[in-house]
Amino acid sequence: MRGIVADLRLGVRSLARSPGFVAVVVLTLALGIGANTAVFSGVHFALLQTIQAAAPGELVWVGATQEDGFSITQSFDLYEQLRDLDSPFQGVCAYAMRSTAVRAGDVTEQLQVGMATSEFFPLLGVSAALGRVFGEQDRESAVAVLEHDFWRDRMGADPAAVGDLIYVTGKPYTVIGVAPQGFRALAKHSKPALWVPIERTAEVLPGFEAWNSAGWIWLNVFA
């Protein structure tokens, strides 16, 4: 394990010396997952287009090469293993987006909703334009952060929207904040209407009760 951590540190230092190299692989590590072994590669985030983050050049996106090919998505179980690994990174985060029913006021629409881990906004260095973003203290809470354009178009850019309820798959969520204008996700064209803690996935997405199982491969992971 010490050798792996040393390789990680070397990879990060190498990336810092070559900030303009958009396709550099910065880390490779092996993790035993039951009877299988996955090899993870972090790819410089410029591959995912421009994102709104405090230091986008320091982010890496984690993919996995396994026996059946390369996967850009991972399980929650693997995210937890990477998160708990002793490494030089500030943290590890995961998110996914799916379409579901969202009701604001009297209007119900089928919209993209982002489910993200508690480290998502802090690691990106993104603060709310209004109210606050969710974090560790909100992991089990029914709270939502609205996308800026959704707040403007559906709620008239009303500051009083913070504290109001919005309904996701028929369940009430308290609006705690509005994301900054232009903030999307980790790819150029990703634009969920709102973000909720990933722990609410089974409620937001009926049929996703196994969302945190080792066999459910659906999350984008970055560090």
Q: How does this model look, in words?
A:
- The structure is a single chain.
- With 223 residues, this protein is α+β, with helices and mostly antiparallel strands.
- It has five helices and twelve strands.
- Strands 5-6-11-8-10-9 form a six-stranded mixed β-barrel.
- β5 and β6 form a beta hairpin.
- It is globular and about 50 Å long.
- The two termini are 18 Å apart.
- Residues 1-49 have low confidence and may be disordered.
Keywords:
223 residues, alpha+beta, 6-stranded mixed beta barrel, 12 strands, disordered N terminus
Helix content: 10-25%
Shape: globular
Percent strand: 25-35%
Number of domains: 2
Which strand order do you get reading across the main beta sheet?
5-6-11-8-10-9
Termini separation: 18 Å
In round numbers, the mean pLDDT is 77
Continuous helix count: 5
Q: What is the makeup of the main sheet?
A: 6 strands, mixed, barrel
Round the Cα radius of gyration to an integer and report it: 18 Å
Low-confidence stretches: 1-49
Order of helices and strands: HEEEEHEEHEEHEEEHE
SS elements, strand count: 12
> Structural class of the secondary elements?
alpha+beta
Topology record:
Layout: H1 2-17, E1 25-33, E2 36-44, E3 60-66, E4 69-71, H2 76-84, E5 93-104, E6 107-116, H3 120-124, E7 130-131, E8 143-146, H4 148-155, E9 165-168, E10 171-178, E11 194-197, H5 201-204, E12 220-222
Parallel strand pairs: 6-11, 8-10
Antiparallel strand pairs: 1-2, 2-3, 3-4, 3-12, 5-6, 5-9, 5-12, 7-10, 8-11, 9-10
